[in-house]
Amino acid sequence: MDLPNLEHIQTARARNSKLVHTTPIFGSKTLSDSFGCTFYFKAENFQKTGSFKVRGVLNRFAGLSQVEQEKGLITVSAGNHASALAWAARSAQVAATVVMPTAASSAKVGAAKGYGAEVILFGNSSVEAFEEMQRIQSARQLTLVHPFDHPQIIAGTGTIGLELVEQIPDIDTVVVPIGGGGLIAGIAIAIKNLIPTASVIGVEPIGAAAMFQSLRVGSPVRLEQTDTIADGLAAPFAGELTLKAVQQYVDDLVLVNDSDIKQAMTFLLERCKLLVEPAGAAGLAAVFANKITLRPNSKIVIILSGGNVDLLRLSEFITLSPAIAS
Q1: Does residue 175 sit within a domain?
Q2: Which of 28, 105, 199, 305 is catalytic?
Q3: What angle do CA 103, 107, 110 make, to 5 degrees?
Q4: What's 35's domain CATH number?
Q5: Residues 78 and 113 in one domain
Q6: What is the tally of helices (H) and strands (E) in the chain?
Q7: What contacts 315, CB < 8 A, 6 or more positions away?
Q8: Which long-range contacts (CB under 8 A, 24 or more apart) does 13-19 make?
């Protein structure tokens, strides 16, 4: 399979325009004044099902034959992709099965079940869940809707890049969280085709740095385990297509720790009144950790990839240590 191009992304947008939200952009004067840049947040936490994932799933649905749909669909997910697939499958009256780690967020498990999916909890890690998904897929002959490594998934997420260019035509830098890489792959392809001078920066948790390690060796690396509060970024490996996209279109990739992510979540909730999940806060975490070179007066867009927080765990994610002094 080949990477999608700009035309594929534009087709995905036309196809999905009535099914997904054009998500809003928010600014932060406090953040901008503190760093001498103009910061914007692209709020995919306000997307349908609470994350960017529906963009790719809906576009993938359009490429499935009637026979593939009638077999029933399957995927593996820490939660957001599961909800997106379940939601889309229910709308199409197609059966969907999702395999999730046993430690998956109860809120995300509940959402997938609420949208009508069969949820199978298996294993103590995303690695084990992925292996179980492959076993079930083979046994039942189900159709896989990959969570990130498919050209139609990537093209769907690239529609965020098209929106960004319309909302802020003179973007200097886009900061994007990385799990398996589907989000940054699509956005980077769109941005680099439309604003070649803009920088695209990826952010991964130190405890789930599959893409970072894959870049170092030049091929997809499979992690034996992951350890981060950002469950949405804990993919056990980078995809072949997504790695290729990062190699071709992404300017830099940086790592953040869970403490950085907690500071970013706290700032977004306290100062911006935006509730995002740990994965969604990773981009801002990289700013607070001084991992990104910021040119004075530049325009920085940070992608808030999702807002599906388990409220029972919210207190674990909030820190009393301010990221920016009052």
Answers
A1: yes
A2: 305
A3: 95
A4: 3.40.50.1100
A5: yes
A6: 14, 10
A7: none
A8: 13/159, 13/162, 15/58, 15/59, 15/62, 16/55, 16/58, 16/59, 16/156, 16/159, 19/48, 19/54, 19/58
Tell me if 112 sits within 8 A of 79, measured CB to CB: yes
Judge whether 305 counts as a catalytic residue: yes
DSSP H/E element including 162: helix 151-167
Give the pLDDT score at 6: 98
Q: Are residues 174 and 46 in the same domain?
A: yes
Both 311 and 225 in one domain: the answer is: yes
120 - beta bridge partners? Answer: 99
Count of beta carbons in the 10 Å neighbourhood of residue 33: 12
Helix (H, G, I), strand (E, B) or coil at 325: coil
Question: Is the pLDDT reported for residue 322 higher than 70?
Answer: no
Antiparallel, parallel or unpaired: β 38-43 and 299-304: parallel
Q: How many residues does the chain have?
A: 326
Of 144, 162, 192, the residue that ends a domain is 144
Of 144, 166, 190, the residue at which a domain comes to its end is: 144
State the chain's mean pLDDT as an integer: 96
Same domain, residue pair 168 and 246: yes
Catalytic residue, candidates 42, 48, 53, 299? 53
- Answer whether residue 323 is part of any domain: no
Q: How far apart are CA 99 and CA 222, in angstroms?
A: 18
Q: Tell me the per-residue pLDDT of 228-255, one tens digit each, with 9 for 90 and over.
A: 999 999 999 999 999 999 999 999 999 9
pLDDT confidence band for 320 (50 / 70 / 90): confident
Query: Are residues 94 and 162 located together in one domain of the fold?
Result: no
Q: 182 Cβ partners below 8 Å, 6+ apart?
A: 56, 147, 148, 149, 150, 153, 154, 157, 239, 242
**Which domain range does residue 134 map to?**
65-144
